[in-house]
């Protein structure tokens, strides 16, 4: 058995969970996969598509998982300097509504735009009913002030698709194929279904009966949920979301996409949203990914960077829970076969100037520690293990550091030296950290009482 293979007991537990989800959820078919690291380590098909169990190559409609792929395109535009996430949309795209919302607000569903498009149920009607951008919006396009709260908006992603087309000069789905799908090897992901694919079904709520669902071209609303894909392709996408790919987006940008952009609503919050990525807090684990639904289909992709795991579950039913089973599959592997850490090794090119910054420091009377990571970043944390004012700092070319998270996100850390070159203190956004608590000779703003401690 190689290190990537799952134990028989784990595979049995995964089989039981997937089979139970398909049967109890009354799903005509279900296709699922587990990804560990960069490899698919388990997959299964239950139920039937055209008389046979689905395979990892069977296409399903993935609904709002489309949004995460569109968000990747938008972040690529940012990486190339063609836009800033703080730009109002109207700086780059003429639109009758939503122009004052920033691109980040559209990505994170905080633009305040209405949840659904104008006219009849857009997921079940042809896009020809909304031929022009203005036709996407109904009589009340705005439900909240931009930036105020999280309010899921499908039209918001229609605007982001139009933004990609405006800046790239080509249909968004063609840009997606060229810039994301082909580099990642996702050849079975596309705008329209290609055999073998599942048909969409509605399952009667009170009887074991099926009704075919329409699979329409949603036109201008397509960036909100049009795409079709397979568990094999989405497993490749999940590995990308975990590790990045410099041909598409790097790991740092994907970490930025996972950061929550909208504050929790309610004391018992279990979910949030980043830049095109949903967040789910479940069983002490924070999952990142997206759910999706279109008439006849439900889909889910979850990743856990901490565990280096991901799961994909696709089914062809209008309603049904696949997000819960997907999370359970991930938890099963994480619990039964926890990630084996890499062997510890000493850092290869240790910088003595960085090593000098490590150890205990005092912010007033609060003991803090600075630890040096192998990648040259600094971890600042309270000595007692609490979370107050903890942050990671990335080194810059001028000898200063920039906070990446926590209270000090974006704030500068500057090592200050005495005239003789010795290290005096750390200045973090004007706060001073010294080697001893309130030593008279240290550079403490406001000075230290002459009588000292007593």
From TrEMBL:
Keywords: Hydrolase
Domain of life, source organism: Bacteria
Pfam families listed in its UniProt record: Beta-lactamase (PF00144), DUF7586 (PF24491)
Protein EC: 3.1.1.103
A GO term, aspect molecular function: hydrolase activity
Name listed for the protein in its UniProt record: Serine hydrolase domain-containing protein
UniProt keyword annotation of Glycoprotein present: no
Organism expressing this protein natively: Streptomyces orinoci
Top-level enzyme category: hydrolase
Domain DUF7586: 351-435
InterPro entries reported in the protein's UniProt record: AmpC-like (IPR050491), Beta-lactam-related (IPR001466), Beta-lactam/transpept-like (IPR012338), DUF7586 (IPR056008)
Domain (Beta-lactamase-related): residue spans on this chain: 21-327
Claim: Transmembrane helix is one of the keywords in the record: no
């Amino acid at each position: 058995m190689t290190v990537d293979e799952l134990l028989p007991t784990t595979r049995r537990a995964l089989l039981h969970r997937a089979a139970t989800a398909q049967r109890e959820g009354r799903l005509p078919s279900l296709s699922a996969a587990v990804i560990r690291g960069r490899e698919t380590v388990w997959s299964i098909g239950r139920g039937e598509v055209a008389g046979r169990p689905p395979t990892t190559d069977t296409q399903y409609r993935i609904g709002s998982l489309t949004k995460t792929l569109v968000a990747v395109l938008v972040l690529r535009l940012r990486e190339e300097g063609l836009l800033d996430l703080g730009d109002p949309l109207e700086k780059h795209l003429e639109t009758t509504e939503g122009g004052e919302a920033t691109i980040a607000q559209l990505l994170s569903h905080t633009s305040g735009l209405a949840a659904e498009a104008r006219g009849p149920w857009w997921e079940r009607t042809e896009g020809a009913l909304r031929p022009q951008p203005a036709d996407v919006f109904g009589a009340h396009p705005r439900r909240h002030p931009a930036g105020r709260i999280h309010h899921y908006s499908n039209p918001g992603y229609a605007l982001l698709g139009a933004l990609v087309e405006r800046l790239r000069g080509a249909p968004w789905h063609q840009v997606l194929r060229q810039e994301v799908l082909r580099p990642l090897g996702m050849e079975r992901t596309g705008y329209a279904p290609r055999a073998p694919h599942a048909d969409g079904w509605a399952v009667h709520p009170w009887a074991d009966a099926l009704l075919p669902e329409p699979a329409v071209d949603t036109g201008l609303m397509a960036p909100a949920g049009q795409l079709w894909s397979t568990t094999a392709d989405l497993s490749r996408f999940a590995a990308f979301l975990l590790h990045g790919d410099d041909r598409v987006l790097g790991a740092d940008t994907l970490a930025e996409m996972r950061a929550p952009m909208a504050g929790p609503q309610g004391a018992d919050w279990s979910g949030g949203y980043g830049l095109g990525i949903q967040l789910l807090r479940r069983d002490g684990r924070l999952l990142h990914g997206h759910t999706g639904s279109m008439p006849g289909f439900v889909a889910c992709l979850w990743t856990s960077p901490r565990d280096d795991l991901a799961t994909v579950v696709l089914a062809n039913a209008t309603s049904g829970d696949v997000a819960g089973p997907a999370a359970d599959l991930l938890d099963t592997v994480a619990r039964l076969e926890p990630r084996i850490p890499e062997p510890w090794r000493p850092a290869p090119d240790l910088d003595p100037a960085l090593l000098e910054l490590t150890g205990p420091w005092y912010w007033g009377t609060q003991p803090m520690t600075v630890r040096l990571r192998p990648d040259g970043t600094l971890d600042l944390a309270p000595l007692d293990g609490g979370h107050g004012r903890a942050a990671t700092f990335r080194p810059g070319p001028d000898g200063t550091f920039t906070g990446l998270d926590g209270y000090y996100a974006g704030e500068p850390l500057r090592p200050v030296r005495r005239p003789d070159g010795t290290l005096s203190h750390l200045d973090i956004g004007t706060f001073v950290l010294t080697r001893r608590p309130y030593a008279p000779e240290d550079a403490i703003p406001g000075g230290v009482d002459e009588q000292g401690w007593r």
